[in-house]
Amino acid sequence: MNFNKFYSLLIIGFCAVFTVQAQPVEQFVKVVVAPDHADWTYKTGELVKFSIAVLKDGNPLKNVIVKYEVGPEKMDALKKDSLQLKDGKLTVDAQGMKTPGFLRCTVSAFVEGKEYKYWSTAAFDPLKIEPTVDDPSDFNSFWDSAKIALAKIPIDSRMTLIPEKCTDLVNVYHVSFQNINNSRVYGILCVPKKPGKYPAILRVPGAGIRPYNGDIRNASKGVITLEIGIHGIPVNMPIDVYNNLSSGALNGYQSFNLDNRDRFYYKRVFLGCVRANDFIDSLPEFDGKNLAVAGGSQGGALSIITAALDPRVKYLAAFYPAMSDMTGYLKNRAGGWPHLFDKNNEQYNNKKDKIQTVAYYDVVNFAKRLKATGFYSWGFNDNVCPPTSMYAAYNVINAPKSLLLAVETAHWTYPEQTEKSEEWLINKLKGENK
Question: Looking at the domain assignment, is residue 109 inside a domain?
Answer without folding.
Answer: yes
